[in-house]
Amino acid sequence: MAKMWAGRFKKEVDSKVNDFNSSISFDGRMYRHDILGSIAHATMLGKTGIIDPAESEKIIAGLTGILQDLESGALAMDMEAEDIHMFIEAELTRRLGDTGKRLHTARSRNDQVALDVRLYLRDEVKEISALVKTLAETLCGMAAEHTETIMPGYTHLQRAQPITFGHHLMAYANMLLRDLGRLSDAAGRMNENPLGSGALAGTTYPIDRELTTSLLSFDRPTQNSLDGVSDRDFCIELASAISIIMMHLSRFSEEIILWSSWEFKFIELDDAYATGSSIMPQKKNPDVAELCRGKAGRVLGDLVTLVSMMKSLPLAYNKDMQEDKEAIFDAVDTVKLCLSTFIPMLKTARVLKENMRAAAAKGFINATDCADYLVKKGMPFRDAYKITGALVGLCVDTGKTLETLPLSEYQKLSGLFDGDVYDAIKLETCAMTRSSLGGPAKESVERQISWMREQLKAY
């Protein structure tokens, strides 16, 4: 295929340079957005009189036909083309002759590429947001079923205080709500129209940027032509938001991996979302969670690629920026794949309540409540803390727990202890009396679920 820009050159570009320069293998996915952007541009050219309105209509019809043929399979992409933009323009010229050559009037590939990427990512943000919202809604539904399922809460991966599984799940729901906010913010800043920026300095033609902005449902046109073609902040910001989503999925995956091990056995993954071993018949591996954890590093790498690519670029466009697409496309593809697999894995997992309760019964996770018992009877917290620590030490030495330690041993350390201490340190009491805002008590978690569901309506 002859190069659109070949007039300046006296010899053909080396075939290896062609391969090195080509991007259609990855930017071909933007064919629909390129065509829609070109239809808006052709509409504007006709309405402003920059080209004859009749030719504008022919171009629009030609582009519409190319889109239909690509989507039906009647037209295959020419993988020898330099990029999707050149392929579509060449196909349009093949069909319409000189009329097709008028499409690129008052436009550069620089603002065309910037436009296509924004249009493409704008659609992808909607899909990612829908998946994140579905996961958050799934967590709310599961949490509602487990507002009384006692489990140990951890700090430093050591058993710390009794909570409920519903409370634990809602922590992740809150992370996802912030993720939705970040995606929404990124989408808002992304939704600016760079078309009309030209190569870098705008154009001498009487274009109407407000018209193309309206036709393409952007909020506003970009305000500086240099920035319009050289900005990739929107890619970096989206990659950052996706990286945080993947970090959250990775944290959750790590817990699922732990919980499904024999050492914890808090959950059992459905057979459809686990794999076996080639030589160990007893194995049931949490591969989905492990892959999500591993792919988080891959997406972080995509973010680093984008930031590193842009950090030293002078204004305006540089060919380095072609590297934006593979990185951001990979981040988008990866987070969608992980979310769409993680959601059903979580939904189908079996929660082993008895094992969670048994784990919570060990490790003295009601020690804080024992200290609080004394505080509520008038003892300063630090004194209560010291006495409770001594009780735990005694239990360790004698093989007892706070629940099985005789009352006489309690009373040796403080006369404030009475028979009601056993009810105060019961795991269910410990969890269900923590009714402060955000706490694990049943009514508190139910409030969290209700609040979360209300917040999710905004997305």
Any overview of this molecule?
- It is built from 20 helices and six strands.
- The protein is mainly α.
Descriptors:
single chain; 459 residues; mainly alpha; two-stranded antiparallel sheet; two-stranded parallel ribbon; 20 helices; 62% helix; 5% strand; elongated
Strand count, sense and barrel status of the largest sheet are: 2 strands, antiparallel
Beta-strand proportion: under 5%
Specify the structural class: mainly alpha
Task: Give the distance, in angstroms, between the N- and C-terminal Cα atoms.
Answer: 45 Å
Following the backbone from N to C, one meets helices and strands in this order, namely HHHHHHHEEHEHEHHEHHEHHHHHHH
- The total count of helices amounts to 20
What integer is the average pLDDT? 94
List the helices and strands and how they pair.
Elements: H1 15-21, H2 24-27, H3 31-47, H4 53-72, H5 84-96, H6 98-101, H7 109-145, E1 150-155, E2 158-164, H8 165-190, E3 192-193, H9 209-215, E4 220-221, H10 225-230, H11 233-259, E5 267-268, H12 287-310, H13 324-348, E6 350-351, H14 353-360, H15 367-376, H16 381-398, H17 407-413, H18 421-424, H19 427-432, H20 442-456
Parallel strand pairs: 3-4
Antiparallel strand pairs: 1-2, 5-6
Helix pairs in contact: 3-4, 3-7, 3-9, 4-5, 7-8, 7-11, 7-13, 7-20, 8-11, 8-20, 11-12, 11-13, 12-13, 15-16
